[in-house]
Amino acid sequence: MEKIWLKSYPPGVPAEIDTGRYRSLVELFEECVSKYGARPAFHNMGKTIDFAELERESRAFAAWLQSKGIRKGQRVAIMTPNCLQFPIAMFGALRAGCTVVNVNPLYTARELEHQLRDSGAEVIVILENFASVLEQVLPNTGVRHVVVTSLGEMLGLKGVIVNFVVRKLKKMVPPFSLPGAQAFGRVLAEGARLTLSKPELSGDDIAYLQYTGGTTGISKGAMLLHRNVVAAMLQYQAWLTPAFGSEPPVIITALPLYHIFSLTVNCLVMCTVGGCNILITNPRDIPGFVKELGKHRYTMMSGVNTLFNALLNNPDFAKLDFSHLKLVVGGGMAVQKAVADRWKQVTGVTLIEGYGLTETAPSATANPLDLKEYSGSIGVPMPSTMISIRDDAGAEVARGEPGEICIKGPQVMAGYWQRPDETAQVMTADGFLKTGDIGVMDERGFIRIVDRKKDMILVSGFNVYPNEIEQVVAMHPGVLEVAAVGVQDEHSGESVKLFVVKKDPALTEADVMEFCKKELTGYKRPKHVEFRAELPKTNVGKILRRALRDEAKQA
Questions:
Q1: CA–CA separation, 470 vs 484, rounded Å?
Q2: What are the sequence ranges of the domains in the chain?
Q3: Which CATH superfamily includes the segment(s) 456-554?
Q4: 50-201 carries CATH number 3.40.50.980
Q5: 500-522: per-residue pLDDT in tens?
Q6: Chain centre to alpha carbon of residue 11
Q7: Is the pLDDT of residue 333 over 80?
Q8: pLDDT (0 to 100) of residue 2
Q9: φ/ψ of residue 447, rounded to 5
Q10: 3-state SS class at 450
Q11: Nearest Cα to 277, choosing from 295, 257, 291?
Q12: At 489, is the pLDDT very low, low, confident or very high (cuts 50, 70, 90)?
């Protein structure tokens, strides 16, 4: 396969990365903390820890795990939002040789029980706000050690105030009973008096069981080996180096660290270059988020389309100082042109879109950093990555034709945990991962995503892609958010239905229909428009089309 995309690489970006440079994430981590000791590593709610503190605290947590009989390969679950406890527990678990199981704190009892049972986690670190959910399912799991923490636990004197507000005034901590659970701070204090025995780790050991969102069926754990994640880190590092400059980067981390995009791009890559993560605990509080942005001189930011859109619709956001901002990376879902154009207008910085999956840790494609305006493309394959666009029979399609995006590279997972049948369904005989996304590659190697294979709408035999419809409708000045799904239609098989959140209260169905008439050919135009106060979303802000489709089907 000819790597036509290499001619589109920015200067200085290698075609291949040295995947044998580190045996494990732990080796890379220990090199970084030794090199960057006094530099700030993570900041949250006014408190900063440097790399030396991160090394010391994560070592203590690792030693505590070993003292409890937790050995190499055993699973440690972490169920917290973005707070200082997350990187300490995460790096500590890895240093003990354990496999990290990242858990969405907003999980229901059913979802939490499934993930703990499926992963076989024996330890869980959990924020007290969600401990009542764990209480409901703990007897049904194999968890032997529970470590409970609070939002203010690592914040010093300010933490006392934070905990008082959270527990008493806001009543955000439902009562719970977890006999035998230990406090995070006490665990670190105990571990600080113990000695860590460094386990022998190789690239083939499992670093993370990273569970897919479960939006297309039961949630599965992608086995990300140490070498997979190291490869993804080095790929991003090679691609992003021109944006770092001479000063250590400071990145705004609003996406949850338990999500693979934020985990790799923000948490792990910043460690390799001595950068600082500004952790945003509750990005849904947009006024609070904007206020926090005003306190920092940040150089980078990552996010998803819905987050960027929400910030742009806050009147105080445009008043911020963006003079230090060099790079903004969008991923996780398609970035809409209307949002990208407005972002450039307000901040002066082009929104750079990339693409990846949980199964690729999540490195796959990226746009050049010197992009002058939004391109609508997800960029070109990253170093050491092959991408093939294939039809349903597995054959490569002609250049410029749509097909399923298939990925091969050192960052691709080893498979799904204890699900060889599911693994076989997504891996081709020649080692490519089938993504389920439909894309088109042009003559320069740039790829444009058309849509999810399962989200495609079939109208009178014509393929209609919701992304295209949503991009168009989002350009209407009266629209805040939009989702397009297919619904049954007795004449055309399926037709397009829109779910719209208004920006302009006066917006009508007729307004939307008229706008679509001007911008879309007949079979692509929606037949139904339903207005909503809000749209269902995943924990990182992806709009859940499936939930809307199921609602429409039941109706």
A1: 6
A2: 50-201, 227-452, 456-554
A3: ANL, C-terminal domain (3.30.300.30)
A4: yes
A5: 999 999 999 999 999 999 888 88
A6: 28
A7: no
A8: 87
A9: -115, 135
A10: strand
A11: 257
A12: confident
| Max CA distance (Å), the chain | 73
pLDDT exceeds cutoff 90 at 554:
no
Q: Token digits for 352?
A: 């750079």
Q: At 427, give phi and psi (nearest 5°).
A: -105, 135
Question: Residue 400 carries which DSSP code?
Answer: T
Percentage helix, strand, coil for the chain under 3-state DSSP, each rounded to 5 = 35, 25, 40
Beta bridge partners of 381: 365
Based on the number of CB atoms within 10 Å of its own CB, is 227 exposed (0-12), middle (13-18) or buried (19 or more)? Answer: buried
- Alpha-carbon radius of gyration of the chain: 23
CA dist., res. 108 & res. 94, Å (int): 26
Dist CA 263 CA 199 (whole Å): 23
Type of residue numbered 460 = S
In residues, how long is the chain? 555
Q: What does the alpha-carbon distance between residue 475 and residue 469 come to, in Å, rounded to a whole number?
A: 10
Distance (Å, rounded) from C-alpha 552 to C-alpha 334?
23
Instruction: Round to whole Å and give the CA distance between 64 and 84.
Output: 18
Residue 214 is predicted with a pLDDT of: 42
Return the percentage of the chain with pLDDT > 70, whole number. 99
What H or E segment, with its residue span, contains residue 126? Answer: strand 123-127
- Residues in Cβ contact with 385 at an 8 Å cutoff, skipping those fewer than 6 apart: 235, 363, 364, 365, 407, 408, 409, 411
In whole angstroms, what is the distance from residue 52 CA to residue 523 CA? 60
484/473 Cα distance (integer angstroms) = 9
**DSSP annotation of 358:** G
Type of residue numbered 318:
A
pLDDT band at 216 (very low <50, low <70, confident <90, very high): very low
Q: Please tell me what DSSP assigns to residue 10.
A: P
Structure tokens at 504: 């302009």
The residue written with tokens 């069981």 in the block is 209
Phi, psi angles (nearest 5°) of residue 180: 90, -10
Question: CB atoms < 10 A from the CB of 234, how many?
Answer: 25
pLDDT digits (tens, 9 = 90+) for 355-399: 999 999 999 999 999 888 888 899 999 999 999 999 999 999 999
CA 482 to chain centre: 21
Unique residue bearing structure tokens 């992003």: 240
Domain 227-452, architecture per CATH: 3-Layer(aba) Sandwich (3.40)
* Token output for 44: 């949250």
Question: 82: exposed, middle or buried (C-beta count within 10 Å: 0-12, 13-18, 19+)?
Answer: buried
pLDDT of residue 213: 54
Q: 227-452 and 456-554: same fold? A: no
The pTM of this model reads: 0.88
Two tokens, residue 64: 């505590």
Do the beta carbons of residue 25 and residue 225 sit within 8 Å?
A: no
Tokens 């209480």 found at: 135
